Amino acid sequence: MGSVVGNVAKDLGLNVKELEIRKFQIVSHVTKQYFSIHMENGDLIVSERIDRETLCGTKLSCFLNLKAVIENPLNFYTITIEIQDVNDNAPTFSKKYFDIGISESSVPGVHFPLGNADDPDLGTNSIQSYTLTSNEWFSLGERTTKDGVKYPEIILEKPIDREKKNLYELIITVFDGGKPPKTGTAIVKITVQDVNDNFPTFAQDTYHIRLQENAPIGFLVVHLNATDEDEGLYGRITYSFSHITQTTGQIFSIDSLKGDINTIGSLDYEASDSYEMTVEAKDGGGLVNHCKVSIQVIDVNDNAPEIIVTTLAIAILEDSPPGTVIAIINVHDMDSGMNGEVVCLNSDIKDFQLLPSSNNYYKLVTAASMDRERTSEYNVTVQCMDKGTPPLSTNKTIQLTISDVNDNVPVFERMNYIVYIKENNQPGTSVQNILASELDQDDNGKITYSIVSSNIDNIPVSSYVSINSMTGVLYAQRSFDYEQLREFQFQVMAKDSGSPPLSSNVTVRICIIDKNDNAPKILYPSPETEGSALFEFIPHSAEKGYLVTKVIAVDADSGHNAWLYYHLLQVPDPSLFGIGQHSGEVKIVRDIQDTDNLRQKLVVLVKDNGSPSLSSTVTLNLVVAENFQQVVPEIRKQPTNSNKTSNVTFYLVISIAVISFLFIITVIITAIFKCRNTNTPTTFGAYNRNVYPQFTLGCPSEISDTSLPFPFSYDVCVTLDSKQNEIDYLKPVQNVPTDNLIDTDDSTAANGSANTEGPHRNIDQVF
Fold this sequence. Notes:
mainly beta; four-stranded mixed β-sheet; 50 strands; 38% strand; flat
């Protein structure tokens, strides 16, 4: 409050001294008067705290209209004040807690929307983003509506298990765009809802119960406690007999809720000494599980046999022969008569045998060869039972350890190893871990590794690879080149530290993987001829699709790295020429026009398919002409500037004048000479009649080796000024030597082109 908004008197053009006299006042239709006028200076002052959100809500523009009234004479003025937003409100959620229920069977990626936060401020002062407490199960997403409102969403990132954790509490925070930003928080409670994904589980699959025959009615035989990790209805278990005989059902009953089995009838050892029944546990979702209850009825006897071990071998070697004595057992029963007569048996372990001796003594011996790797420890149970009614028994467990001997060779985890290494690797790089296991223990199980000595192309394998003798890690000793060596193999030996030591070998095959380290090599046109101005002829009659030439390239790499693609890198007229991306064939893509240049220079880029890609270029000079005479002036013509042309013309005029003068002098001298020698024979004149300087155009030998020769020779006259390089064609010479001509088809085959539609001629040098 008290802030000055502006000077009303100045803005309205009023005299400050007249404000109070003329009763200047502000009239507002709102209940609160937010502004007042300072009568002494005409300032408009804020008199009440202004809350933009209260006045305009969510409107983007907020204006407050005031009416100003002044009397004598009476005038009305409208004053419009724009209320601008400031970040005076923190974003808030509609509630402090968001409760979300997620089924434990939900798959990752499912979205759970939350309520959006609200911020009365506008623009950048309103809500900008949301964050969520960092965790591995859930992340935060945002969904923006057509109205631009951002709604946060909980996204499930990992499967959840209610039995491991059934409640997650996360904090979601909302930020506005003010400076500094304001925040609001809410707590997201995620409850994992149960599904019936667990079966009831008994503590044992089979319950063996020994029950004296004098047990009273109502006696608790066993308490079955099946558990189910589900909750609610899915975790509620009921018990029942699923398989029981009619006789057994008259003696035993089960509590469907507690799982207690009780006696409901009298036991009779002579009638039956054992009972078996199957109990079913079912949860509320219909999942069931079973267990077997075996009840042994015991005849009444008050003394059980006593077992005394007099001699005991704690450990024996695994190579001990059958019949080795483990223990001497003495049995004593204080009862007399039949109740005092004892019979002893060992457990069902077939590797041991209990042999009776005299005076209630027994020997426990080995019945088979021992193997520590199969069983390192035995718990041999000896059971002794008297002959009383009912008989009583006693069990004695004897623990025996089998000591190791070195009787197992090291076994590699694979039958053979195939290792792939990219070429140009760093020397010393680990390439494979060769592992072998040993069933023996201690020193008998300690394994060392070595490479079996061998040669690869007369080079020791140790110069290629090495191995850590303790860990079996294989290292590359050099940088491999796929183009020189593609694969090799050797053997690794694993040897234990036993006495005597045992060993085994495994074959390791090293395969070098190609990398794109070779650029394409252009075979035709040969790059060595580029500096010699290599040309290819194209007749004027060539039509669309005419094969001009074919670029042939190879790549020393293999696979995808050797796939080549051809592109026109530089071409004066892209509409005239095209190149096959895979074939390298340069063809005309439209008919040749009279306005096209006779000479075209193309730069072809050959690129392989490696990553990164490597490339090479070759330059093609193409000449459009029906025959050689038409194109030589164009080929030999060099661009000159105006000054040079002027100088050449000047020298040419002088040269012609000098030649004319010399010609006149020669004619005069010749006439005088003929007059003085009228009797001279005329054979010399006949010999020199119609003689012109004669030149035979042909290709240099280096061109003839790679392209077609010219099929004609011509008589030519050359201008005296060699800078012009102009050629006057007089007439074709009919008798052309054919010794140096090359068959067109043979030349084409030598250049690697499988299909040509016209002669290809290369011009290396005119003269």
